[in-house]
Amino acid sequence: MKILIVEDDVNSRIYMERALTSQGYSVASAENGVVALEKAESSPPDLIISDIMMPEMDGFELCRRVKTDERLLDIPFVFYTATYVDQKDEKLGMALGASRFLIKPMELEELFCAIKAVIDENLQKSLVVPLQPLAGKTDLDRMQLEVLARKLDKKVRELEEEREALRRSEYLLAGQKRVLEMIAANAPLEDTLAALMNFLECGSDGIFGSILLLDEDGVHVRHGAAPSLPEAYIKAVDGAEIGPSAGSCGTAMFRCEPVIVTDILHDPLWEGYRDLIVPYGLHACWSTPILSHEGRVLGSFAMYYGEVRSPAPAEKHLVDIATHIASIAIEHHRAGEQIRKAASAAEAANRAKSQFLANMSHELRTPMAGVLGMLEIALGGPLEEEQRGFIEIAHRSGASLVHILNDILEMTKIEAGMLSLEDEPFVLRECVRSAVDIFESEARRKGLDLVLSLPDDLPERVVGDCLRLRQVLTNLVGNAVKFTERGRVEVRVSKGNIPAPGKREFTFNVTDTGVGISEDKKHLVFRSFSQADESHTRRYGGAGLGLAIGMGIVERMGGVLTFDCEEGVGCDFAFTVSLGETVKEPYLETADRTGGGH
Ligand code: ADP
Is residue 587 pLDDT above 80, yes or no? Predict the structure, then answer.
């Protein structure tokens, strides 16, 4: 038994094909009347099931052609349709000679029964199929035209509605995007909420939007945004309490559910607030609580209207958008505030720590100066060998304690942003050399080559802070000598670009062939009080402040301190800073020459 399905919607067609195949029918299909006619003529089916609205040739025309074609008129014809059906359609279909007029959706079982009944009727030839349709040709033409015109009319209306819905949803999406972008950019909360209300008001006629925020105490409300509500009303509501009958918003927040007041004038919920709003001609107010993601009430969103009215289903969509976005905005803002509070508390704690360290180091340095002074006097007098040894150790320990105290004091200055820099002319070679010279004897003792490489065209004099520059170099060279057991330590200076008129960049490298730093410890190097390898602390000593101070000073000079280290191979620490260039002054030239060069 072969059935021809005529249906333009591909999903419905496939669905029908599968359903009928499962019942043992052989199934052919066509997407419109023209294709169906061709198929029916080339291989006549035992039944045609057809939709009505289709491109090229609709179902009515197809039925009419089948039932007026001698070769096809015996084939029973069933309409199966869903689009804008009314009684006139059925009347026309049956007048054209159809056996059934079935309306979607239909239980499959019911559909199968109807199909089987039509086939059986046809087999028993109980179906009387007119060669000429039941009604007169002109009547049928008129009916067909009428029906199709009505269907087209409906389709046009439906398309227009769809277009309008599409326009609205595009508008809503664009508005939501704008507000979400403001949230992401951390715009002030009141601006974000006002933008949200503005876009809702512009998108729908006659709405006055309002957002109230619930205070931390969970009782008082604060003005959030209400760009079009009267100023006096906004003022009167700001600070009011929520409660079981506190207008629409106060009640919605209290009950934690939407409160729809369609007529403010007569609703008991507005008893205490009515006089505030009615003079402004507002008569309806629907309010919905704004909830946090955990379900806590954050505030309320309300839509006011100038007339007595109830919400339409489309307006529910607006409420969903407004409450959802307002909740994101409020939560985002509050989370940001908490972070800001936590950050400023952490900053205050850090400042207190720095202050404490600064005071302690300062207080300890004064008595330590006394201790060192006394030890030096003792060392200058007659001592037995053993006593001298003890006092020398005490003096060295005291000196290294003062060194650590100085470093702590220095670090607290850097952290407090109080490091000030000099801007004085100085002889660059001498500054660098003096930092290297300090370690000459230590390098010799360890059998290291300590090399200073200065380019020939290095300017004699530059302008900057010689002491600070030397301090950084001393820390770097000190580390290089400390962490190198054999090989060499090299200090290089190179001249770089001119970043601004009268300025010149200089790069300083301190390279060694020492223990290096392992990959997983590199991140610790610039942290205060931390050392890349704790075993080094025992072996080489140190408080872990030298590089942090060096970095602080270099950054203050507008540069960065970087390093390139490999474990077991060595390290290369480098920084680039710009220093002022000066014109030579004769008396300094002389001084330079006597200073000699490396
Ligand atoms: P310290 O007083 O411990 O030397 P620093 O801040 O100067 O403190 O250095 C921090 C850590 O970085 C050192 O403890 C060491 O582990 C590592 N480090 C610094 N310079 C070198 C270097 N030239 N070679 C190997 N390790 C180094």
Answer: no
Is the Cβ–Cβ distance between 208 and 221 less than 8 Å? no
Q: Is any ligand 1 atom within 6 A of the Cβ of residue 576?
A: no
Ligand 1 centre and the CA of 408: distance in Å? 16
Residues 6+ apart with CB under 8 A from 330: 189, 213, 290, 292, 298, 299
The Cα 436–Cα 188 span in angstroms is: 55
Query: If you take atom 14 of ligand 1, which residue's CA is the nearest one?
Result: 531
Helix pair angle (59-67, 33-42), 10° resolution: 30
In angstroms, the CA 276 to CA 270 distance is 10
The closest-lying atom of ligand 1 relative to the alpha carbon of residue 544 is: 8
The Å distance, Cα 432 to ligand 1 centre, comes to: 20
Number of continuous H segments (helices) and E segments (strands) in the chain: 18, 17
| Ligand 1 within 6 A of CB of 517 | yes
479 lines ligand 1 (CB under 6 A): yes
What is the three-state SS of 246-300? Answer: CHHHHHHHHHCCCEEECCHHHCHHHCCCHHHHHHHCCCEEEEEEEECCCCCEEEE
Long-range contacts at 392-400 (CB < 8 A, ≥ 24 apart): 398/368, 398/371, 398/372, 399/372, 400/541
Average pLDDT, the chain: 87
- Out of 406, 439, 474, 479, mutate this one to test ligand 1's pocket (max ligand atoms within 8 Å of CB): namely 479
pLDDT digits (tens, 9 = 90+) for 468-509: 999 999 999 999 999 999 999 999 999 999 999 999 999 999
State whether the beta carbon of 484 lies less than 6 angstroms from ligand 1: no
Backbone angles phi and psi of 236, in degrees to 5: -65, -35
The Cβ of residue 575 has, within 10 Å, a number of other Cβ atoms equal to: 24
Sequence length of the chain is 598
Coil vs helix vs strand at 233: helix
Q: Assess whether pLDDT exceeds 70 at residue 282.
A: yes
Contact, 496 vs 473, CB < 8 A?
no
Over residues 355-371, the pLDDT tens digits come to 888 888 788 888 888 99
Alpha carbon nearest to ligand 1 atom 7, residue: 546
Write the CA distances from 464 to 358, 413, 420, 503, integer angstroms.
26, 19, 12, 10
CB of 490 shorter than 6 A to ligand 1:
no
Beta-sheet pairing, 503-512 with 461-464: unpaired
Which of 303, 287, 298 minimizes the C-alpha distance to 327?
A: 298
Contacts of 21 (CB under 8 A, 6+ apart): 27
